[in-house]
Amino acid sequence: MKTTGKITRESLMTLEAYSKYRKENKPAIIAHRKLRSVRLGEHVNLQFESETSIRYQIQEMLRIEKIFEEEGIEQEIEAYAPLMPDGTNWKGTLMLEYPDVSERKRELARLIGVEDRMFVEVEGHARVYAIADEDMDRENDEKTSAVHFVRFELDPAMRAAVKAGAGVKLGCDHTHYPAHVNISAETLASLAGDLV
């Protein structure tokens, strides 16, 4: 399964071809997404994106919205392609998950700025903090959003260490959500494929 590359209109499947592909490959796509999903504590989930996951998202949007005209396809590519890692970074969708509406409202007010306090720490290297929401601001003075898009830029030494098998922590040092977790070896093997 490819994890990096470029998505173009020509590289996407027609709606008919995708319908057949989807039936045969949906379990593998779901497994790929699960492998690249890291839970941080009880309420934070970071879905590390890849070409596979972004291509799937675009194809799903085209299928759901029944988009087959060039302009609509290009709009979907423009919306999602920036979330694909480009060799020097990891990109992800950060989700703050609070099923209870009252709790979610309260916690999103307490967690303003949480997206900027997310970090990855490659063994033997300094923490790299997330660059968040480059496309648009997703918080205001009253609350943060339940979904953020984040990017972690890794320098050449960090990328080499990851490829050589170094451990990596995902963490958050926000006052109201201090947590960290070691990323599993299986997930790290997939993430290493994003790096050049």
Keywords:
alpha+beta; five-stranded antiparallel β-sheet; four-stranded antiparallel β-sheet; 9 strands
Q: Helix segment count? A: 6
Strand content: 15-25%
Largest sheet, spatial ordering of strands: 1-2-3-7-6
Mean pLDDT: 94
Computed Rg? 17 Å
The geometry reads as: globular
The biggest sheet amounts to: 5 strands, antiparallel
Low-confidence stretches: none
Give the termini separation: 17 Å
Question: Helix content range of the residues, please?
Answer: 25-40%
Order of helices and strands: HEEHHEHEEEEHEEH
- Global structural class: alpha+beta
State the total count of DSSP E strands.
Answer: 9
Indicate the topology.
Layout: H1 15-35, E1 37-40, E2 44-48, H2 51-65, H3 70-80, E3 89-96, H4 101-110, E4 118-122, E5 127-129, E6 131-132, E7 147-153, H5 156-163, E8 168-174, E9 177-182, H6 185-192
Antiparallel strand pairs: 1-2, 2-3, 3-7, 4-5, 4-8, 6-7, 8-9
Helix pairs in contact: 1-2, 2-3
